C-alpha cells in the first residue's frame, strides 16, 4: 500500500486553503496538517529547516514521496503572479548541487537560495543558472528525498515577478526559519517606501497561495502512486 504524500512548505499561508478542514497536529516542535492522502509540515524558511522537517516526515510517515511546495520569485519576465511551476531540476545555490525531480509536466529549473532575492540578485541568478525561479527550500527537501531513495517533486507558485521591488525581508528571518512579522511591522511603520510593496506582496501572495493549492489538489493523487517503504535518512 502506498504511503501518504509528504508535503513540506515554509509557511502555513502558502497552503492555507489546501489544509482547511485537515487535522492539525503539533508535534516535535512542528505543525502538521493531515488528510487521508497527504500530510503537510510547516518547516520554516530556508534550506536547513526544510531538510530537518523532511527528515522528521520520513521517520514519522514512511511516505510515498516528498514534495516541496510554496512560493517562488520569477527569474523570467514572462512568469506572472500565480503561475505554477513543477520543475524537473533544482539547484542549491550554496553548493551548486543539482537534484532531479519526477516532474509530470514540462519541467524547467528553479534555484534554492540562501536569502529572499531582490531585483539585482534575481538578474544574477538568471544569468548564472539559466533558471526560471528562485525559492529557498526545495534543495533541502530534495537532498533528503535523494538520501532516502524517495521520489521527489517541487510545486511552486510565483509570488513576486522579476522586477518586483522586494522590501528588505531577510533581516526578519531568524536562523530557524521563522519570519518575525511583529518586528517587521514595527519597522514598516517608519518606512513609507516599504508600504506599497508590502501591500502588493500580500495581494500577490494570496493569489499565489490559491493557485498553489489548486495545483497541489490536482497533483496529490498522481504523486501518491508510489510504493511505500522509504529508507530512513543516513546519520
Automatic annotation (TrEMBL):
GO terms for biological process: L-methionine salvage from S-adenosylmethionine; nucleoside metabolic process. Residues 4-95, 108-164 form the Nucleoside phosphorylase domain. This is Purine and other phosphorylase, family 1. It holds the Pfam family PNP_UDP_1. InterPro entries: Nucleoside_phosphorylase_d, Nucleoside_phosphorylase_sf. It comes from the Bacteria. The lineage of its organism: Bacteria, Pseudomonadati, Acidobacteriota, Terriglobia, Terriglobales. One of its GO terms (cellular component) is cytosol. It comes from Koribacter versatilis (strain Ellin345). One of its GO terms (molecular function) is adenosylhomocysteine nucleosidase activity. SUPFAM superfamilies: Purine and uridine phosphorylases (SSF53167).
